[in-house]
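Whether sequence alone determines local backbone shape is best considered at the level of individual chains. When preparing material for the folding task, we compiled for one chain both its residues and its backbone structure tokens. No coordinates are needed to read the tokens, only the vocabulary itself. For completeness, the protein is quoted in full, as a sequence line and a line of structure tokens:
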Amino acid sequence: MAYIDISLSLSNDLPVWPGDPSIDLKKTMSMDNGDPCNVTHLNMGVHAGTHIDSPHHFLNNNITVEKMRMETLIGTVFVVEILENISIINSSVLENSNIPLGIDKLLIKTKNSLRWKTNDRVFHKKFIAIEKSGAEWIVERNIKLIGVDYLSVAPFNDGAPTHRVLLEKNVIVVEGLNLYDVTEGYYELICLPLKILGSDGAPARAVLKTIDNLNI
């Protein structure tokens, strides 16, 4: 077994959603400058880097990060590769992919991940995302966690419909994954968001553990 870190490294030049605060990571104490220890200060929005959305993000229903189901964030997940030249993931794209029946956690690998591999530091509005019909397909399949490899599960100029379809059914949304080094198949997912009281989202560390796909 091996572990694959699918989280983005937080840094000052990591792109964030337009309008969100930039990541501000700086040393407030440094042993190189004669201080007794190293201390780092971090200022950022909760939707920067690899993170989860709570239902409160789009529903204003007070179902915030600390109230979300931890068991959904840990367990068997299927990673599907959708690498064709598409601009949107709709129900037809999902129906014609290799997603097996009966899974409740799904990560979608697209060409978005190439941007993380090449250390692209620019925010791209034209990323591959899931439209409303795709979100409805996910809900109909009883999938309880969906993860994507850019900073939103939904298209840049049409974020509300996809988010609302998913979050109204308590589907956990994980955004900002780097799936470049992951091949299609089953894994064990460990995704632990920070426990931020009353928050609409939280940064997370997400890791996959390889398993024997033949035993699924």
Summary: Residues 73 and 191 are 5 Å apart (CA to CA). Residues 3-9+46-215 form a domain with the Glucose Oxidase; domain 1 fold (CATH 3.50.30.50). DSSP finds five helices and twelve strands in the chain. The chain has one domain: 3-9+46-215.
